[in-house]
Design a protein that fits this description.
It catalyses: acetate + ATP + CoA = acetyl-CoA + AMP + diphosphate. The chain is α/β, with parallel strands linked by helices. The chain contains 21 helices and 29 strands. The strands form seven sheets. The protein has an eight-stranded mixed beta sheet with strand order 10-9-6-4-5-12-13-22, sandwiched between helices. A seven-stranded mixed beta sheet has the order 3-2-15-14-16-17-18, sandwiched between helices. The protein has a five-stranded antiparallel beta sheet with strand order 20-19-21-23-24. Bound molecules: 5'-O-[(S)-butoxy(hydroxy)phosphoryl]adenosine.
Length: 643
């Protein structure tokens, strides 16, 4: 039996949604989807209101995801213009710098609007038009928000690439979507360290012939060489006006691309469109976090990930919120930093990842206890399963039992939260993302696709479309269908394993495909393998996840060297560095085991199940190894396990 934390009377009374209303919303979305969604869509400001809602199909014959197709709107106008009359002088964006001794910045809705319009005019002056792709490779500074919203304003499709990715990873993402222009900064700062963003763009440009223009924001003032391709943002901004009409867009016009790792091949460009995505971001922000005017909302993600897109920018701004953007790390200069930021800005809700909580928990409660935190009313988590110990620490130590924990399960592909509590409606169980939001229809199936009812474990599918669903893989619609809709025909397969308990609560158990979740970031094992085999001394590599105290999962790599190459500590360090350079620091292997051979079937397929078990240290139950081409490799692997 797991603990149940009951919704407090106070929350039940005051929240937007209580238990009765949740049930009514869930039923309405299920029984009259068209009426329900056209009604919900009214929370957005449409130029032409839609008269149709869901026109999606998960079947091959008429496959496609389409919502509100005859509606027209502009996403940036929904996030800015429509708030000007009622809350133009309210703070829209608070920016907290990396170093605590520096001054934060605040932008009212009017100021943010003006910055975005000016940025949009700079893009236009560079020839960017509706439908063009703009790559944004930025630190967590206000200009990153301006750039994203400026794209939305003129109908350009943004592709934000996390500032921690390497020049190679950046180049691949620029080329894949044929992006002409990159927005970057001279350098970024995080935890007192400098990240050479402009230099990385220069290196990427050599491998990305589509790139013609780089707009450079002066962030740190570092001395960076400018080429004929580069334009300083502040110089370009001085040449344009702050008056820029919002481009009317069809609901289904693309809003952004965000690259994410899958189980095979290179990262996929997940495409989200305008109307459905914005509705889902806004509605889930409202439902799950019970946002109220005047609350200070802090999503402590990076805008390079979907969490930053949906819950630093689009959801909160569509709801007229005050959203906080933090440049730095949760534990720098020390483990109090996050709670000091809460106190400094009187934050009401913080939304972060279990990995950050585990890292802070390890440092001890004193770093938390010495801060006030009385402004907090709700605590959110996302990115990976939260272990009950971290959940309780968040609840008891950080929230002092006053703040519901909202654990949101979702994915880059889903646009916003899918399975998550509503604080006034849902009793909580530590470690469970609880129940589906209205309009979300989860289903558990076994390996053969048989639908499993009741309290059971299985693979998590979603049977009906929802407004925030991705629309395609950029440039490869067939891959979209193939990746998500062929494992279990007619259903969207999430890639996650999941248990449903006797109360209908969902417990995500982690990925069941070759994707690992490192510190809440998705990593394709195939990507790390490809990087490793690019090294001249490596013949073959196989990568699996391993349990990790803080990161959730770590990266365990089995490496077979070319004949004549000797394993050594130096080579191990070199390979780690190699992967960092090829992909980025988040892909650094935690353990590398030199393996003379990998366990393969007679047809040459690597048996990852065995590799996973060894990496987990679970060598007593390796299962049947008799089908291997050479069963003796397993003994060697077990004997030379690392860690
Ligand atoms: C994968 C998606 C959602 C934004 C951040 C990650 C895992 C995400 C939870 C949660 C258990 C979770 C799943 C999912 N995941 N949230 N609350 N509980 N697992 O987005 O990079 O697209 O990764 O993260 O495995 O499939 P992403």
């Amino acid at each position: 039996m797991s603990d149940v934390y009951r919704v407090s009377q106070d929350w039940a009374r005051h929240a937007h949604v209580d238990a009765e209303k949740y049930a009514a919303l869930y039923d309405a979305a299920a029984s009259d989807p068209t009426g329900f969604w056209l009604d919900q869509a009214q929370r957005l400001d449409w130029i032409v209101p839609p008269t149709v809602a869901d026109q999606s199909s998960f079947d091959e014959a008429d496959f496609g995801v389409r919502w509100f197709a005859d509606g027209r709107l502009n996403v940036a106008a929904n996030c800015l213009d429509r708030h000007l009359a009622s809350r133009g002088n309210d703070v829209a964006l608070i920016w907290e710098p990396d170093a605590p001794e520096e001054e934060p910045k605040r932008f009212t809705y009017l100021e943010l609007f003006q910055h975005v319009c000016r940025f949009a005019n700079v893009l236009k002056a560079e020839g960017v038009a509706k439908g063009d792709r703009v790559t944004i490779y930025m630190p967590m500074i206000p200009e990153a928000a301006f750039a994203v919203l400026a794209c939305a304003r003129i109908g350009a499709i943004h592709s934000v690439v996390f500032g921690g990715f390497s020049p190679d990873a950046l180049a691949g993402r620029i080329e894949d979507c044929d992006s002409r222009l990159v927005v970057t900064a001279d350098c970024g700062r995080r935890g007192g360290k400098t990240i050479p963003l402009k230099a990385n763009v220069d290196a990427a440009a050599e491998r990305a012939p589509s790139l013609k223009r780089v707009i450079v924001v002066k962030a740190t003032g570092a001395d960076v060489p400018m080429t004929g391709r580069d334009v300083w943002y502040h110089e370009a901004a001085a040449q344009v006006s702050a008056d820029c009409p919002a481009e009317p867009m069809d609901a289904e016009d693309p809003l952004f691309i965000l690259y994410t790792s899958g189980s095979t091949g290179k990262p996929k460009g997940v495409l989200h469109s305008s109307g459905g995505y914005l509705l889902w971001a806004s509605l889930t922000h409202h439902w799950c976090f019970d946002y109220r005017p005047g609350d200070v909302w802090w999503c402590a993600a990076d805008i390079g990930w979907v969490t930053g897109h949906s819950y630093i920018l689009y959801g909160p701004l569509a709801n007229g919120a005050t959203t906080l953007m933090y440049e730095g790390l949760p534990n720098w200069p020390d483990a109090s930093r996050i709670w000091q930021v809460v106190d400094r800005h009187k934050v009401h809700t913080i939304f972060t990842a279990p990995t950050a909580l585990r890292a802070l928990m390890k440092e001890g409660d004193a770093f938390v206890a010495k801060t006030d935190r009385s402004s907090l009313k709700l605590l959110g988590t996302v990115g990976e399963p939260i272990n009950p110990e971290a959940w309780r620490w968040y609840n008891d130590v950080v929230g002092e039992g006053r703040c519901p924990i909202v654990d949101t399960w979702w994915q880059t592909e889903t646009g916003g939260a899918m399975i998550a509590p509503m604080p006034g409606a849902t009793d909580l169980k530590p470690g469970s993302a609880t129940k589906p939001l209205p309009g979300v229809h989860p289903q558990l199936v076994d390996e053969t696709g048989k639908v499993l009812d009741g309290a059971v474990s299985g693979n998590l599918c979603i049977t009906r479309s929802w407004p925030g669903q991705m629309r395609t893989v950029w440039g490869d619609h067939a891959r979209f269908f193939q990746t998500y809709f062929t494992t279990y025909p007619g259903k969207y397969f999430t890639g996650d394993g999941c248990r449903r308990d006797e109360d209908g609560y969902y417990w995500i158990t982690g990925r069941v495909d070759d994707v690992i979740n490192v510190s809440g970031h998705r990593m394709g094992t195939a990507e790390v393998e490809s990087a490793l085999v690019l090294h001249a001394k490596v013949a073959e590599a196989a990568v699996v996840g391993m349990p990790h105290d803080v990161k959730g999962q770590g990266i365990y790599a089995y490496v077979t060297l070319n004949a004549g190459e000797a394993a050594s500590e130096e080579l191990r360090a070199e390979l780690r560095q190699w992967v960092r350079t090829e992909i980025g620091p988040i892909a650094t292997p935690d353990a590398i085991q030199f393996a003379p051979g990998l366990p393969k079937t007679r047809s040459g397929k690597i048996m990852r199940r065995i590799l996973r078990k060894i990496a987990e240290g679970d060598v007593s139950s390796l299962g049947d190894t008799s089908t291997l081409a050479d069963p003796s490799v397993v003994d060697d692997l077990v004997a030379n396990r690392v860690g």
